[in-house]
Design goal:
mainly alpha, Lysozyme inhibitor LprI N-terminal domain-containing protein, single chain
Length: about 70
Amino acid sequence: MTAQGATTLASVLIERQLATADEREREYWAARVRLVNQQRTALDPDDRLGLIAQQQAWLDEIDALTGQATRRIA
């Protein structure tokens, strides 16, 4: 589930990157994609609370970027 959140956020960020003609803005979005990938790689699969917190942070960012509410993690 956490990997899916990272993939969804990365796809939103890549859409932003491809939609801009400004080189500086493209690099910003590319850097955000790299950060999400680094965050996903750094996750400890045994840290349930850490996984939940990271997933929620990604969902919150998706919400902010798309204006669409995503599912909350309890």
